[in-house]
Amino acid sequence: MTPNLTLGSRIRITLEMIKWEHSIFALPFALTGALLAAHGLPALHTLGWILVAMVSARSAAMAFNRWADAALDAANPRTATRAIPAGQLSRAFVLGFTLLMCAVFLLACAELNRLTLELSPLVLAVLLGYSYMKRVTRWSHLVLGLALGIAPSAAWIAVQGSLDPRITVLTLIVTCWVAGFDILYACQDMEHDRKAGLFSIPQAVGIERAFWAARALHLVVVGLLLWFSLLFQFGWAGRFGIAAVALLLLYEHLIVSPRDLRKLNAAFFTMNGIIAMVFLGFVSLDLWLAHSI
Question: Domain of 111: which CATH number?
Answer without folding.
Answer: 1.10.357.140
